[in-house]
Amino acid sequence: MTTPTVDAPTLAERLGNNSDPDPTLIDVRTPSEFEAGHIPGAVNVPLDELKGSLDELRTVLDDHHDVVLVCRSGARAGQAQEALQAAGLSSPPSSPAASWTGRRPAAR
User: Fold this and answer.
1) Catalytic positions, please?
2) What share of the chain in percent tops pLDDT 70?
3) Residues of the chain with pLDDT under 70
């Protein structure tokens, strides 16, 4: 099964378009990676803690229909997608954040 993905430039564009609400970002990297730098507004739910957070994530996914999973390369975000699917939850797109510049595009 192919899971949806979004590349970092497209995600940056979505975050800065000012016409649609920003997606909810779930960063599945380790806490130390998250603290070293993350996309503003992202929430850290490390991949190794994901299964223990399924009830909370179920609420987030139900309440926020535009959710994107992020990590450095996309691998852990893909694993998080698979874990959510295995738990019967809708699977949000994943995005590698390795090329994230930390800046949102200028408003148009």
Assistant:
1) 71
2) 80
3) 1-3, 64-65, 91, 93-108
